[in-house]
Amino acid sequence: MKKIVSAVLAASMISASFAALTACSKTPVLRVGSWADYIDEGGKNSIDSSNKSLYEDFEDWYHEQTGKKIKVEYIPIDTNELMYSSVGRGDKYDLLCPSEYMIMKMAAEGLLQKFPESFYDTALETNYYVNNVSPYIEKIFKEGKTSDNASWWNYAAGYMWGTTGFTFNYDKVDSEVVKSWTAYTNKGGFSISAKDNVRDAYFEGLGLYYEAELLALKQLFEMGTITEEAYKQELAEMMNDTSVETMNAVENLLKKNMNKKANRNFWGFETDTAKEEVAAGNIDISYQWSGDAVTIMDEAEDEEKPIDDRYRYDYCIPDSASNLWFDGWVLMKDAEEVEAATMFVNFLSMPENVIRNMYYIGYTSCIAGEEVFDYVQDTYGAEKDAADTAEYDLSYFFGDGYKLTADKEQLTRQLFAQYPDEETLKRCVVMQYFDNDANTRAYKMYNNVTAS
User: Fold this and answer.
1) d(Cα 61, Cα 59) in Å, to the nearest integer?
2) Which of 178, 324, 392, 412 is deepest in the core (most CB within 10 A)?
């Protein structure tokens, strides 16, 4: 007869064993929580197939720099909410990589510590983050405030950033359709998908609900009637409106337009599952994070596919407004390996490692610098004898004078998705975190929408 051990006893045995192993171990462990496939894991998909993972390379670099050993435990987490829950139930991390709204929430709840002053010392050559971060990202982080009136700059080091917009089949969908949030109300027979999470779905609904007002506001700004500061402030207020009246109106819009029963053109809500469907030509319009849009565009026209199975997809940010997002590294309040944690962030901010990560995951780093610009130019710059080209100004991100000549199609494709032009970014807004009341109502709203 088999001996059955209770779950509680088994858990205690595992914990005891782990504690014993930890006590015996002479190598400290740096616990890093982030998204799956969000760091170069080495191997065949790396820019060099002989590469080890970046966190294994960090272990070697850390030893070279300090003479001490470190072991990185990289823990993949699926969502911001699961990350928050993990911390809430007592799981220990030194570094996490949440999205902007979760950074704000964790900072407000006292779960984070500020980066040490030494991390921002530009005189230190190994402070690769502060010496290479994009001036655009630095400005956003310094202007953003947490509840204790500290800037995001103190609490987070930018990792990846981007926008959201419509990825669309160039040969089937007129670009005018996706310049508007009314793409969800289209009667042209185009299949369209939305993001399967509360915040993105609500943001899409806000865009649809406020579109006329947003366009009128934009016109006032373009005419010079209001300042850029006033424009951005009012834009942010509308796209962060969580009032009961607005949320009820958005719920009705979502039920009407993002529902297979009510709208035969609606493909469905998705998180990552639609990427393959879009790349295979099965979804005509898909609301995507910019990094995933790049992946879709690359895979849809993969030259290894039969020519009849290739599709051209482009990327469009609605004319009225869209979302500006970022993911950043944060130091947990009870982090045990602060030195290793800050060095890990700096290691990932080394230009060669930035390039490795961008190549591997397809997202856009918050780090600038000449080497990163050269990589972007090599990737998206036009051939010398190309005929249909355009100058693309990236000074806002890399610094004065950083421009490249690209094929004109890149103005709506991968280059645009990775680095939207400065004018477009003026209508992109960071979505703030919801307070407890708004969060409860938002989840109820979303459940009502998806259940209908």
Assistant:
1) 6
2) 178
Which pLDDT does position 448 carry in this prediction?
A: 95
Digit-coded pLDDT (tens) for 368-421: 999 999 999 999 999 988 899 999 999 999 999 999 999 999 999 999 999 999
For residue 327 the two structure tokens come to 């993911």
Beta bridge pairs of residue 351: none
Q: Which helix (H) or strand (E) holds 113?
A: strand 112-113
Which of 340, 279, 289 is closest to 313 using CA atoms? Answer: 279
Contacts of 317 (CB under 8 A, 6+ apart): 163, 164, 165, 166, 420, 424, 427, 428
- What is the β-pairing status of strands 285-289 and 313-316? unpaired
Asked if residues 413 and 297 have their Cβ atoms less than 8 Å apart, the reply is yes
pLDDT at 25: 54
381 Cβ contact list (under 8 Å, min separation 6)? 404, 405, 406
Using CA atoms, how far apart are residues 229 and 234, in angstroms rounded to an integer?
Answer: 9
DSSP string, 153-170: HHH-EEEEEEEEEEEEET
Q: Count other C-beta atoms under 10 Å from residue 352's C-beta.
A: 10
Q: DSSP character for 381?
A: B
77 Ramachandran zone, left/alpha/beta (phi>0; psi -120 to 50): beta
According to DSSP, residue 334 is labeled T
What integer is the mean pLDDT of 24-35? Answer: 87
133: which 2 tokens? 């971060």
Give burial (CB, 10 Å; 0-12/13-18/19+) of 106.
buried
> Please, which residues have CB within 8 angstroms of residue 85's CB and are 6 or more apart in sequence?
none
Rounded distance, CA 100 to CA 280, Å? Answer: 31
Alpha helices in 369-435 (DSSP H): 370-380, 395-398, 414-418, 422-425
